[in-house]
Structure formats: C-alpha cells, structure tokens
C-alpha cells in the first residue's frame, strides 16, 4: 500500500499567488510564478498531512490571521525579489 501525503502549504500559497503578484505589478509568466512560489514555500513552514482529518485541521489553521499574514508576507517578498531579477530575462 502506497503512502499518500501532501504539503498543504503548496495549496495555500497557490491560492494567494496570483492576487499578490498582480497587485505588485510584476510579471506573471509561468517562470516568474514558479520562482515566486518556490521562494515563498522555502520560507514558510510546511504542513504535511496524510489523512482527511489532517487536511481539515491545516485548512482551518490557514484561515487564522497570523497564518494568512505569514503567507502573504512570504509571497510579497518573493514577488518583489523575482520582479527585480526575473529569470525569463536570463533565458
């Protein structure tokens, strides 16, 4: 039986990615989106779950004001850094 697990922080970051990037006025191409996503995820605590109950707990926690602030802060910082030196300009 294969184990199934998921880092729900990826879903939380992805849910907020476009709005943060669009509000910053930077590029929203796939390369920039990927770079912003990777940077933000590397600066946030992962939330791995293996059960439905775990998914619900993390989902509820993601709606706290501190969790939301942490995600938005990491995304804003990432979007700013990527906008300063976008990878698509170097390819």
Please render the helix and strand layout as text.
Elements: E1 6-7, H1 8-24, H2 30-42, E2 48-49, H3 52-62, H4 65-84
Antiparallel strand pairs: 1-2
Helix pairs in contact: 1-2, 1-4, 2-4
Structure at a glance:
The chain is mostly helical. It is 67% helix and 4% strand.
Task: Provide the β-strand percentage band.
Answer: under 5%
Give the uncertain stretches in residue-range form.
Answer: none
Structural class: mainly alpha
Distance between the termini: 42 Å
Helix/strand order: EHHEHH
Based on CA atoms alone, the radius of gyration comes out at 14 Å
Describe the structure in your own words.
With 91 residues, this protein is mainly α. It has four helices and two strands; from the N terminus they run βααβαα. The chain has a two-stranded antiparallel ribbon with strand order 1-2. The longest helix is centred in the last third of the chain and has 20 residues, at 65-84.
């Amino acid at each position: 039986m294969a184990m199934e697990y998921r880092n729900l922080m990826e879903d939380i970051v992805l849910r907020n990615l476009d709005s943060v990037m669009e509000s910053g006025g930077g590029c929203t191409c796939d390369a920039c989106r990927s770079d912003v996503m990777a940077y933000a995820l590397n600066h946030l605590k992962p939330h791995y779950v293996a059960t439905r109950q775990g998914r619900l707990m993390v989902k509820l926690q993601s709606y706290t004001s501190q969790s939301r602030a942490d995600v938005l802060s990491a995304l804003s910082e990432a979007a700013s850094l990527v906008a300063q030196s976008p990878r698509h300009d170097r390819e």
